[in-house]
Amino acid sequence: MKRLVKAIVILILAVADAIEASGSSDGYCNYKHISTSRPHSVTITEFGAVGDGLTLNTVAFQNAVFYLRSFADKGGAQLYVPQGRWLTGSFNLTSHLTLFLEQDAIIIGSQDSSQWPIVESLPSYGQGLDLPGARHRSLINGYNLTDVVITGDNGTIDGQGLIWWEWFSSQSLNYSRPHLLELVNCNDIVVSNLTFLNSPAWSIHPVYCRNVEIQNITIHASSDSPYTNGIVPDSCSNLCIEDCSIDVGHDAIALKSGWDNYGISYGMPSTYIHISKVHLQTPLGSALAFGSEMSGGISFIYVEHLHIDNSLTGINFKTTRGRGGFIEDIVVSNVEMENVHEAFRFTGHCGGHPNDEYDPDALPKIKQVTLKNIVGTNISTAGFFSGIENDPFTAICLSNIALSITSDPSNSWSCSNVSGYSESVFPDPCSDLNSNSSFSCFSLDFTAAAEA
């Protein structure tokens, strides 16, 4: 037993050394070209806003943005939000705009649901996430925009989500809950240096977007808040998430691309996404999730320098029959986990359907996924891998992984309908992931995509 413990310690230290020695590899976060300077600036108080936490400022924000549209062909403009508590309902942004929140500036979402207008569901989903039909518009929105910066000196956007969580739990909602920030079909976006608190549903949701940088963001929602996700890249390409800390009730970062036949028809994958230097925590969800709404496809994703603690699941790939689509060409590298119930989960039996019109023969594909240079301490279970009968998950590579398991290591893996390869992994994975064939782990090169 002492020899086994010593061997485990040596392996964990070796993996930790490999993580520390690995610098940032080539990825989209290393190719940033979005300017943030503006030649014109106005302050929200110029439009009658009052930062007392009581006065409703929805019209002030709407009028300010409308006014700043006139500067779009003059280099754009900045809307400055000074220190204060700025209560507001939902408002839209415009192109060539910077929304800047000063330190101790807090934009607060109204708890009056009428201040969150009703909008149609997204075409790749066919309905809201909570209920069939339409949904509430998010607090801050962008539609068909280009060159938008949402930043500050660590200002805060607080959705006051408790009332929405109570409505959800009591089944009192008439429409699906809103998000804090949603950007639809937008290009050249920066979200940085802000704190997002208590979203009714998801905190940051870029969907159908290209060239997006999300940096130095803190996100928090109560651990028991229902299905509150952190950052959800959805049918996006060329996207960077970097230097963020996320603590929410469900999935901290979740990559998606549409739901069943709606996502298949829309056909826009999430691709060329780089996630680096993030700290994730979610006691009731997954720190890093792929799916389960992935019907448009998810591919060419590189995740590195990930710290996960106090979470139910570390890394989760989830889908089900009827999804169609694919999750492929994924690399997750240099990960530290601590106090995680289940390190890895791959499942083909997760998630519901928007309606009964889905095609059960639309089978999703999960293949060419590499997980490497991972160390975990106080892990309950190493991995659960369950593909779909007659549709196995293939080419799964586990490399240089050391997990300190609190349960019996010999029972720490469960595998069915999956195949792959492993090297330098402790505890030893199941035989399905221990192929002796000349299998090569998948690797990524973002250079061509970043230069495109």
UniProtKB/TrEMBL annotation:
<dbReference type="InterPro" id="IPR012334">
    <property type="entry name" value="Pectin_lyas_fold"/>
</dbReference>
<dbReference type="GO" id="GO:0005975">
    <property type="term" value="P:carbohydrate metabolic process"/>
</dbReference>
<keyword id="KW-0732">Signal</keyword>
<protein>
    <submittedName>
        <fullName>(wild Malaysian banana) hypothetical protein</fullName>
    </submittedName>
</protein>
<keyword id="KW-0326">Glycosidase</keyword>
<dbReference type="InterPro" id="IPR006626">
    <property type="entry name" value="PbH1"/>
</dbReference>
<comment type="similarity">
    <text>Belongs to the glycosyl hydrolase 28 family.</text>
</comment>
<dbReference type="InterPro" id="IPR000743">
    <property type="entry name" value="Glyco_hydro_28"/>
</dbReference>
<dbReference type="InterPro" id="IPR051801">
    <property type="entry name" value="GH28_Enzymes"/>
</dbReference>
<feature type="signal peptide">
    <location>
        <begin position="1"/>
        <end position="18"/>
    </location>
</feature>
<dbReference type="GO" id="GO:0004650">
    <property type="term" value="F:polygalacturonase activity"/>
</dbReference>
<dbReference type="InterPro" id="IPR011050">
    <property type="entry name" value="Pectin_lyase_fold/virulence"/>
</dbReference>
<keyword id="KW-0378">Hydrolase</keyword>
<dbReference type="Pfam" id="PF00295">
    <property type="entry name" value="Glyco_hydro_28"/>
</dbReference>
